[in-house]
Amino acid sequence: MPFLVLGDKYARAVKTHAGAQPVVFPLAEASQIDALLARYELAKVTVNALNRRESLQQFVEARQAEGEAVMIDQDLIDEAGITNWQQVSMGELRAFRDALKNLEHLANFKNKLLRKKKAIDFALVKDELLAAIDAIRWEMRDPAQ
Length: 145
Known about the structure:
The chain is of the alpha+beta class. The protein contains four helices and five strands, in the order E-E-E-H-E-H-H-E-H. It has helices at 27-39, 47-65, 74-81, 90-140; strands at residues 3-6, 9-14, 23-26, 40-41, 83-84. Helix 1 runs antiparallel to helix 4 and helix 2 crosses helix 3 (74-81).
């Protein structure tokens, strides 16, 4: 995903459907979304693959409980600990969706406030520039007129 610079913070733009404005998640919200997504595997996986993962995790836990040193890469063990969406209850999936939607709402609200702040700042600068131009015109006008 592309990263956009917003002031001194980074944000990630998320593609949306055609014609919609892309959602830009500020870094704080993006990291929380990543943390939630890391807990679940959203890809389609066969039941046999899920069973193999469970058995690897159970094997490692059983050996560690017996006090044996297990020489399996931690990434493989962690992958076995990721929950596939097919193994989660509907209530947990709904809570997951609601959490993601809430984070999206917070990001959109934050972006809306930032856009309004930029518009207000722009209006203030514009007014100052117009006032300065008028002052210069007033000073430079010909007194004979």
